[in-house]
Design a protein that fits this description.
By secondary structure, the protein is α/β, with parallel strands linked by helices. The chain is 44% helix and 12% strand. The protein has six helices and three strands, in the order E-H-H-H-E-H-E-H-H.
Amino acid sequence: LTHYPDLWAAGVDIVGISHFRTFLENTGEWRRKLREVEYGYLGEDDDFFEEIAPLNHSAKIKAPLLVFHGRNDTRVPVSEAEQLVADMQGRGQQVSLHVFEDEGHFTEKLANHITLNQSITQFFLQHLQPSHSEKE
């Protein structure tokens, strides 16, 4: 959505990282040590984090975006979703956030899993339906 904005009619973000620096700063220390090996190190790779952060490229997003996150996510803090949504809303972009108050990194509860998938289906049906002029 950020690198090829003209290719997408709609997008869904599920427990996504919006900025690797803030992700590493806000995740648990045990997780930070594991993820820094994979993503880069705070204080050493900050310029790289700024370059690749989806948050720093979100102004390019043209498609409506639906964001899901669990309030109790210990892998990717919910603040990653909240900062992306706030940033996009501040520019008037089409974005909405659904936070599952009783979930972590995955939707484990059946009712939440159903809500997630029904919401995604409705969102895509709304935004991917051909317009009347395209049907003719």
